Every structure is written in C-alpha cells, then in structure tokens.
Amino acid sequence: MGRDQRLPRIGLLWRGDGAAEENSARALERLDALIVAFRQLPVVIEHVVYTDEAGLEVRDQLLACDGVMVWVNPIHDGLDRARLDALLSDVAARGVWVSAHPDTILKLGTKEVLYRVRRLPWGTDVELYQTAGDFARRFPARLATYGQLVVKQARGNGGNGVWKVELLEPSGSPRSAKSEARVVVIDARATDGSSARMSLAQFVALANESFGWSPCLVDQPFQDRLSEGMLRCYFTHDQVVGFCRQWPKRGLLGPKEALAAWSGPASIMEPADAPAYQALRREAETEWLPSLMGVLDISPQSLPVIWDADFLFGPRTATGEDTYVLCEINASAVWPFPPSAAGVIAEAALIATTQRRE
C-alpha cells in the first residue's frame, strides 16, 4: 500500500530518555484522553521520544509519519529547543505536518507577543527591550513610573526568566530611578514567597544575562488581582476548546496574598461551554483572535491544534464585571488540557494531516 493509500500516521513527540520508562509513562498519562480520541479515527498513532543525541533517528521516524504533534518545553533541565526546532523545520519542509511549527511558535509563543498585541483587547502597557544596553537605559524610568513591574525573557516555562521587581520607595514619577536605588526582586520559580533585596543596578545586570540566549526582554505592569488566580483559555486553531482556572505560585505574591493563593482550590478544568466564561469565549473568537492573527500575520490553519492563552484578572469595571490582561501564550508544550477537548484536537490534527498529504 502506497503512502497516500494507507491510513495517515501521526507522531506524538515528547522529550525524554528513550530508555527511561518513567518519562514515557508520564507523557502517556497526560495524553491519555487524546490517544483515546485518536482511536476513534482512521489514523495510526506513533510515539516519538526525542533527545538531542537521537536527532537523526527521530528525523527518520518523523519522515515516516504524515504529521507530528509536539510537547517539548522551551527550557528543560538546562536544555533548549534549538536542535529540535531545526529538525522540525526540516521535516516540515519535506511534507510532514508539524504542530506547533517552530515558525508559528516564534510568532505566537514567545513573550515578545505581549508587546506586539499590547494595543489589542486584553493588552497592557508592555515594553520591549532588544539589547542589554537598551534595557539598562530605559528600564529604570519604567520602574520609577510604575513602582513594580514583571520582567520576562522571550522564552521559558515554569517561571524561568520571570521576575517581579519593586522599588522599596516608589517615586510615582516618570523620572528614572537611580542605579543605587534598592529593589525587592522575586524569582517566579520560587514557591516559598522568598525574595532578594539588591540595588537596581544589580538587578539590571542579572536580567541582562538573559541576552546571552534570549532575543529580548519585556516588562508589564504587575496586576493587583494576581492572588485571585489566572484563567487559561485553550484553543484548537481559532476555536476555544476549554478553560482552566488556576492559582499562582507563592513567588510573585506578598506574604498574605501568597498564603491565600496557596490555600485556594486546585486548578479546575472546564469545557468550552462553561457558563461562567461565555463572554470571554465570544470576545476571543470574534474579536481578539481575528485581530491577533492580523497583527502576527498568521492564518487560522497555521495556529496549533492545541495552544493556550493565560489571562490575569484586571481591574473590575464600574459595574463589578471582570476585565482581563494577557499574561502569556503557550504553544510549545500545552499539557494538561481539558479532556473534553481531546476529540476536537484529534479531529483537527487528522484534517490538517490529510490536507497536507493531498
């Protein structure tokens, strides 16, 4: 049977040691609902365990597939995606459908997107810095104006390269804070609410180390309602497929807020038709997403079959309604996701793979 006559073959790729059963067991557990959904469709699923050392073998495995879905974080145990992204771009150029494609991740799934869409609904006053010198020159004035900011490097996960920075004596003016000014810095990876005090110059030097590999830094104003949680909105292409209400780690919060967040409920997955979020869903699908695709020059078909946008709660309206602020977009390794979305994701992957074969 020729390639175009057999059932489509889709690889499910994650990072791990091919000899370590624990990594594969964890991945398969996370993907269980999706694998079950694929079993209802005319498709063959292949498990692909990626390591940088096994790149050539993985390439051959992917070239025997018609498509591949990828779950690999930007940073994992000190490793990045540079080799994997080159491999995925290569197999995509040879006809394999890839989700998410590295080019799409660069447009959609880095912190730079916060700056590019800052004027869209749910945007905020984000600033972009493309060099260490630029950050050293302009960040002190931003911090003096806001008093506290969240600084983020271009790519990361699990709080990597994210800091909350607060002046000990905020000036409340647009004048630049002095390099010797004292700041409180919280690393978002912290889980115990710990912080460090240092001079502004020391923080600038710390953050500027990111430019050794990150193409940019961004900052955005700290949201006072962070302790109330975050709303994750899941998408398949340009369709909302679910939600998750999450509570933050202690790291970016003060002691009282951290205690409240830590004792809050566990993350709650909800389907796309959850009544509480229908206003957000309508606005996302009819206004925000079309505008986002226009700004990023990306088509609905190029959007991943599973990606998400994280929204913080902004100031309430005069009538008490919630507003939202975009926190980040995730496109590299979106798991877990609502089990109710698995069927939509699987069908979208099969359609995209079939269209690529034709």
Query: Which strand order does the major sheet show?
Result: 5-10-6-7-8-9
Oligomer: single chain
- Let me know the largest β-sheet: 6 strands, antiparallel
CATH class of the largest domain: Alpha Beta
Write down the domain tally. 3
CATH architecture of the largest domain: 2-Layer Sandwich
Instruction: Please state the average pLDDT score.
Output: 90
Distance between the termini: 16 Å
Tally of extended strands? 15
CATH-assigned fold name of the largest domain: D-amino Acid Aminotransferase, Chain A, domain 1
Summarize the structure.
This protein has 358 residues and is of the alpha+beta class. The protein has 11 helices and 15 strands. Strand 3 (67-71), helix 4 (82-93) and strand 4 (97-99) form a beta-alpha-beta unit.
Blueprint of the fold:
Layout: E1 9-15, H1 21-30, H2 32-38, E2 44-50, H3 55-63, E3 67-71, H4 82-93, E4 97-99, H5 102-108, H6 112-116, E5 127-129, H7 132-146, E6 148-153, E7 162-167, E8 182-187, E9 196-199, H8 200-208, E10 217-221, E11 230-236, E12 239-246, H9 255-262, E13 268-271, H10 278-296, E14 307-314, E15 323-330, H11 342-357
Helix pairs in contact: 2-11, 3-4, 7-8
Describe the fold and architecture.
- With 358 residues, the protein is of the alpha+beta class.
- The protein has three domains: 9-100 and 345-357, Rossmann fold; 108-114 and 226-337, D-amino Acid Aminotransferase, Chain A, domain 1; 125-221, Cathepsin B, Chain A (Alpha-Beta Complex), CATH 3.90.70.
- It has helices at 21-30, 32-38, 55-63, 82-93, 102-108, 112-116, 132-146, 200-208, 255-262, 278-296, 342-357, and strands spanning 9-15, 44-50, 67-71, 97-99, 127-129, 148-153, 162-167, 182-187, 196-199, 217-221, 230-236, 239-246, 268-271, 307-314, 323-330.
- Strands 5-10-6-7-8-9 form a six-stranded antiparallel sheet.
- α4 links the parallel β3 (67-71) and β4 (97-99).
